[in-house]
Amino acid sequence: MGAEIHGTQKFNESKRTEIKFSEEAMATAKLLMSNYPQGKEKSAIIPILHIAQAEFGGWLSPEAMDYVAEILNIRPIEVFEVASFYTMFHLKPVGKCVFEVCQTSSCWLNGAEDIVKHIEKKLGIRVGETTADGMFTLKVAECLGSCGTAPMLQCGASYHENLTFEKVDRLIADYRTENKQKNYTDLDYKNTL
Amino acid sequence: MKVTIDGIEIDVPKGTTILQAARMIGADVAPPAMCYYTNLKTSGGYCRTCIVKVTQGSAANPTPMPKPVASCRTEVMDGMVVENFTNPEIVEARKGIVEFLLINHPLDCPVCDQAGECKLQDLGYENGLAESRYEFERREYEMIDIGEKIKLHMNRCILCYRCVKVAEQITDGRVHGVINRGDAAEISTYIEQAIDNEFSGNVIDVCPVGALTDKTFRFKQRVWFTKPMNAHRNCTSCSGKVRLWFKGDDVLRVTARKDEWDEAEEFICNGCRYDHKSKYDWVIEGPAPIHRQSVISQNKYANLDEKKLQELKNQKALGFMKIDKKP
Amino acid sequence: MPRKLLIQNVDVPGISSLETYRAHGGYASVEKALKTMRPEDVVEEVKKSGLRGRGGAGFPTGLKWSFLAKPEGVPRYLVCNADESEPGTFKDRFLMEKTPHSLVEGMITSAYALGVHTSYIYIRGEFFYVARILENAIKEAYAAGLLGKNILGTDFSLDCHVHVGAGAYICGEETALLESLEGKRGNPRIKPPFPAVAGLYGCPTVVNNVETIAAVAPIVNMGGDEYAKIGIGKSTGTKLISASGHINKPGVYEIELGLPVEEFIYGEEYCGGMRNGKKLKAVVAGGSSVPILPADLILKTANGEPRLMSYESLGDGGFQTGTMLGSGGFIVMNEDTSIVKNLFTFTRFYHHESCGQCSPCREGTGWMEKILQKFINGTAQESDVDLLWDVQGKIEGKTICPFGEAAAWPVAAAIRHFKDEFLEIARNKKFVDISHYEKLNGGLS
Is B227 inside any structural domain? Predict the structure, then answer.
């Protein structure tokens, strides 16, 4: 694995004062915190980081993590430690649609490597890169629990399963047309092509 | 509670860990420990160098424990039988763990300030292979300054978590921690913050390797050419009991006093550590007790009174030593 | 027809709604337990049923429940482990997505048995859409008085919350899961103490897999003795198997334990045989962590007995010639498959997912992946096989949590049964992989 970030992070004080959850997001965050016993609100850190990622452009900047620390009344380093542990948190900017193609055993057995190559060719980027228009980021992922419908990729909340080259082409075209940032927290249910 | 370690029986109070019991018996049976630290709560269990085989769980339930256990985090049961150096499997397993700790370690001992007092160096010497079987590139990180006085050399870190626990337990606000995961995990501060706290310098003392070093001592002298003396001063922040490392009449660095297990007896404040580098600042008590085997000072000093040393050892092993922390 | 107790109604339209679920007998176990049984009676039925943890370890559930400490004035917690991440396993996702109320029902009945008033379902972050489905089901259950205060008019109260993770296989280990649920990094805890004594927020906690909790409902409904009649020997009841790989009909199947492996692979009711008529080469029977077995040993034990889908039969022969039922992640590989490459994907997975807390796993998993990468590059030497064997042995059993074994076992098994494949690559200095996509989609057989 390669960590996205190393060492200390740059912090932008003026940017920090600008960022703020929407009212709806803040209400959800407060509701999530109430799911845990009094004094244990830190439990809500992962769910709230998901919200922060969706609110602030699909990734977690140091300023965004600092803001989450403030909401939870914990030290910023505690947020950084957690955010950098879990693979769903992007600590660097990403495209509007992040394609995470599963590459573990069953997906590999069903052609995941060819799917990745196909996407690379189609988008003109390599794994880990983002298209120049900021529309797509291509990543590989480890087992996403979709082995019976391999090969598959996840984009935001949606699982796209039983992939073929044609399905991938359609998916890219559809997302381009839609031109919208896709988040894990998006409420749309399974999007089966 | 009676426990037998490598064939030697000892009576210990309830709540004693296997490692503590072994240390009470003596260095001949005590497992090495890279991450455990008596004065730091919840430390230990990570490095796995102290693993031992429990061949009998207790008198009441004699079944052996299926897997080797971390002796630093396993409490003794009455009638427990433990094998450490007498168990070839454990000796072999420990060699494996040392190899794991070394595959990404830079082995830059010739230019490392920790050389001579590095636990990994000792461990490698005792358990290491003559040559590395690891043929791949080692992990590399940029060196960073965490504050004016501390250098973080992440390449050398073995992720023992001691410095994190120091920051959490004896300073009033942790700004550094472990980020990322797996073999990409690293110690880091958040957003270029300095570890800036009256007790922050203790992260240097607890670091078992040369990952966190004292910038004011950087490249000043090899430790084995310096002479450690115990000294004290009136300090309003800590006990003021320290160890001064002399070269001639110059105090090159100030550290906590360490016991024979290389653990700080009492944590000291940054004032004592960094701001009092003149011998006139201190009341010198005399030469520091140094282990006979130490490279620092073979035969330089008389050994401490044996009985007193044993007493100290028992207290320490049981974790009774107080951290004299003000406030 | 084999009996189905968990997913028998998944094809019923609207079964994810409370109304339809109840119309098909749903929540009967809650009615029965809360109104006619004492909590200890429910525990007793679960003990009698012989139910074993369905997450992979196979520990008897009733026994695990009986360890739960019950100090006065201290809350207890029930946490459902829905962090399903073991490669090859997707049964819990299927169950939660199709019939979420089965899990909610099991949660209520189990919580009642354990005297728990707050429960959490920890679901892996990637299953966000499934979390929404569960949240909806929970909302319906609250509205119907099945959750909340005084459930069904009794004096039993229970809250249930869904908690999403954010991508970390290690959070499937129960103490890592608890750490994560407390808002920390998913580092497994050093045990003892076990969660039954000091779990979530330091309080006594039971952590059970989704399928285990869901199975409590039919057990209460039919009685433990009746449940124990299904299956074979100590492998009682039904089990969800996630079938994937080179088979005609991948998917989730509920089987009665004791079904012959051969029937499971070739039977029309199950996997429907090998795709494109290819020959069976090997099977990973219980998720990526369990030893891979070559075709002859997965179909028959070393003694020539038919191999059955049960804890005991799959384990027959130990690791020399057997494997484990594990999580029931059943990955089937045909004759074209490179075992070395498959192992590489597993080891890359474990390297990626190691939490990094203890040294053998942090350093060893990456080392193994790098050695295997040499095989894929065609640059490996014969001695690398021995090195790989040695490294896995130095991880196994030396780590804080069972992740070390999970990472080591697949390596050991691949070398044990397919050493020639490794040696061949090393001797020829060449590795040739086929395009599985073309083979499967282009029909280039």
Answer: yes
Q: How many CB atoms are closer than 10 A to CB C442?
A: 10
Considering the domain architecture, whether residues B192 and B273 belong to the same structural domain is answered as no
**Predicted pLDDT at A26:** 96
Residue in B245, B150, B257, B240 with CA at minimum distance from that of residue B195: B150
Chain B residue closest in CA terms to A13: B191
In a domain, A8, yes or no: no
Q: What are the counts of helices (DSSP H) followed by strands (DSSP E) for chain B?
A: 7, 14
Containing structural domain, residue A52:
13-85
Single-letter code of the amino acid located at A84:
S
Sequence-distant (6+) residues with CB within 8 A of C308 are: C232, C257, C258, C259, C260, C261, C314
pLDDT exceeds 60 at position A109: yes
| Single-letter residue type at C147 | L
Residue A11 sits at the chain B interface (C-beta within 8 Å): yes
Question: Rounded mean pLDDT of chain A?
Answer: 92
**The pLDDT value given to residue B301:** 46
Q: What is the pLDDT of residues C326-344, one digit of tens each?
A: 999 999 999 999 999 999 9
List chain B residues with CB under 8 Å of C393.
Answer: 96
B80 and B150, same domain (yes or no): no
The DSSP symbol for A18 reads H
- What Rg do the C-alpha atoms of chain B give, in angstroms? 20
**CATH number for the domain including B77?**
3.10.20.740
Q: Are strands B283-287 and B227-232 parallel, antiparallel or unpaired?
A: antiparallel
Percent residues over pLDDT 90 in chain C: 96
Banded model confidence at residue B131, pLDDT cuts 50, 70, 90: confident
Give the pairing of strands C231-232 and C235-236: antiparallel
Q: What is the ipTM of this complex?
A: 0.95
Number of domains in chain A: 2
Residue C214 C-beta-side C-alpha neighbours within 13 Å: 30
How would you classify the pairing of strands B2-5 and B80-83? parallel
pLDDT confidence tier of residue C444, bands split at 50, 70 and 90 = very low
Confidence class of residue B192 from pLDDT cuts 50, 70 and 90?
A: low
Please count the structural domains in chain B. 3
Q: At what angle do helices C28-36 and C100-114 cross, to 10 degrees?
A: 10
Structural domain boundaries, residue B42: 2-100
Could you tell me if residue A91 is inside a domain? no
CA-CA distance, B304 to B309, in Å (whole number)?
7
The DSSP-derived string for C362-389 is HHHHHHHHHHHHHHHHT---HHHHHHHH
Structure tokens at A128: 């880990």
Which residues 135-154 in chain A show a CB within 8 A of chain C?
142-151, 154
The C-alpha of A18 sits at a distance from chain C's nearest C-alpha, in angstroms, of: 26
Contact in structure between B258 and B270 (CB atoms under 8 Å): no
Band of pLDDT at residue A17, cut at 50, 70 and 90:
confident
Residues B96 and B154 occupy one common structural domain: no
| Partner A contacted by C127 (CB < 8 A) | yes
* DSSP strands (E only) in B269-325: 283-287
- Same domain as A133, residue A170: yes
In tens, the pLDDT along C76-97 reads: 999 999 999 999 999 999 999 9
- Looking at residue B299, its pLDDT comes to 40
Q: Which residues of C touch A86 (CB under 8 A)?
A: 125, 165-168, 186
Extended strands (E) in chain B: 2-5, 8-11, 51-56, 69-70, 80-83, 144-145, 150-152, 176-179, 186-189, 212-214, 227-232, 241-247, 250-255, 283-287
Q: Considering the entire predicted model, what is its pTM?
A: 0.94
Find the CB nearest C363 among B68, B104, B180. Answer: B104
SS (H, E, C) C157-210: CEEEEEEECCCCHHHHCHHHHHHHHCCCCCCCCCCCCCCCCCCHHHCCEEEEEH
Cα–Cα nearest to B181, from C407, C355, C363, C364: C355
For residue A155, the domain's CATH number is 3.40.30.10
